[in-house]
TrEMBL record:
It comes from the Bacteria. GO terms for molecular function: catalytic activity; iron-sulfur cluster binding; metal ion binding. This is Radical SAM superfamily enzyme YgiQ, UPF0313 family. Keywords: Iron, Iron-sulfur, Metal-binding, S-adenosyl-L-methionine. Its cofactor is [4Fe-4S] cluster. PANTHER family: ANAEROBIC MAGNESIUM-PROTOPORPHYRIN IX MONOMETHYL ESTER CYCLASE-RELATED. It comes from Fibrella rubiginis. InterPro entries: BchE-like, rSAM, rSAM_sf.
Amino acid sequence: MNRNILLLEPNYANKYPPIGLMKIATYHRNRGDQVRFFKGNLNDLVLDLLWEDCLKQLIFIDDTTNWAEKQSLVKQFIKTRNKELLDTLQPTNSLYSPLVVKCLEGFGDRLRRKTWKLDPKFDRVYVTTLFTFYWKITVETIEFAKRLVRHPDEIKVGGVLASLLHEELEQETGIKPMKGLLDKPGILDEGDLMIIDDLPLDYSILDEIEYEYPTRSAYFTFMTKGCTRKCSFCSVPILEPTYKPKIDTFDKFGEINERFGEQQNLLLMDNNVLASPKFPEIIEEIKAMGFTKGAKFVEPNQLELSVKNLREGFNDRAFVRRTFRLMHDMLKRLKGEPAQVYYTALTENKLLGLETTTKEGLLNAYSTIATIYEKFRNKAPKNRYVDFNQGTDARYVTDELMALMAQIPIRPLRIAFDYWGMEKQYTAAVRLAAKHGIRDLSNYILYNFQDKPNELWMRLKKNADLCIELDVQIFSFPMKYIPLFGEEAKHREFTGKHWNRKFIRAIQSILNVTKGIVAPSKRGQKSSFFTEAFGVDLNEFNEILYMPEAYIVYRHLFRKDYGYTQVWENEFREIRLSEDWKIVNAVICGSDFTTATIDTYQPSEKARHFLRHYTMAKGSADPSKDPKFIALKSEYDKLIKENQAIELTLTYDFEDGLDSEKELGVSSNEEELKELVNLE
């Protein structure tokens, strides 16, 4: 008997599609099950499910009215029970009106009274999990899933958080999570011989949702599994305890190409690929996949592929949406007679809005517009790239291995720089990369672990110096350490023993505009983002750590226009040498500048006067007065949009605790600021 399967990803921001769920989707489709994927507001999912049931009843009552065209109005009525909408929702034949009204009101009652929970739609629900600090939203998603599944034993929870905090998650939700990999037969269904971890990905589920992942046109896979290291800050030894030096990958790509078309890039999730004695074989396989140095990619006809899947009945929910989007994306590019023919075909088949779009309409329109689409679609060759996204281990790098790496279009080459103690190995690895012509590099730079703040600056400075010396680009991404276990793993408030909340917020303030990126220094530049943002030396860096967050972000505004920064610097240097410093330091390091908190320290008048820099009124600064801020933000927005290496690296960690300029606590009123800082 076919089952109704729901795949859920909690509604957090993440850069990669849920690879585990994409494999599980393939597994269940192979078994003949119905599969649905959702990521978003779960109340919207309930509304969608109610609409689908309501639509069936409305058609049964009156099949002469095109109820699909009224989807948004029906949903709005179910959600609000606004009786003024009933006039618009009247059926074609007024004889059916009483039944239609009763139907609509009934579904409105089901939502309001939550009686929909008495009729769960799914035989099994999967919930994927990611970082442990997404604890709250993950638990909420699991609790919601209980209302959607027919039997609670059929809720399957897996992924990173589920593997690391499995006992806590079971205690919190009553659902026993699945630990580790789905790398053996029979894990999901007794007796089934499929190994989920070996299955190709079902890309179609990504078109079922509104959320767009930054990285989509890529093959996501592994060449190895696990890691030979046992770093205490890393979860890999727990998630993938056995190192596998070579994973069979090549055959999966044929299935993906047949169903979804060739992908532009190759995104490899290996945790320590250079540790593999079979690395030469891995490089040869990557080249055999079409990823040779200088390889080009011409995007296949996506509309043709989408229509092919529609005709075959493969995930209609996804491919109706995808075909509709592809058709309308092309319409925006057309002019003249082709545009008129194309638009007429869409109009005649009621394809101008998604609500009125049907599978039949899409297939009918395609017969008219197929040649136009093929003629005008983008066929420009694009570069193909390979990305070992989890980074390579500098301690394994040799001249021979780097020569092999240079044979594929690696961009960027990520080399781990987790702590200052590996500076020699890291520097040697970067030099070898430059020697073999690899000029685009990137790394995550761990901080807030056992390191000291100065060591973060030193690693960033090393990258800046290497960029200039070797004429390479190294994009650095400072990443704040979060514990793997315990209560501190469930949020992002952890501070390492050498850090405090103010220092962490200072780093986040620096990175807020640039989405977490520290861009490379360039030869001939008088200054760089690094020196301006982090300071020219350790003394300046340490002052920046203490600087009010608004002064950090809006450097030009507060230094050049208002002159507040110079006042703060003079007062800061003076108070550090006074007997008030102990109390001032405690207040600043706690990063809580409310009057009530400051009062608990019983500061002197001098200390309280200095702390006025940190107690500005809530609001937002006016960036239009800070052209440097605007220019920098624009530069980085453009960089992120155009640079594949940056797009593949975005981590969202920079959002922790500082989501927008509004959180800087700055008034937009210049007179109010002057009064607060008491400069005049």
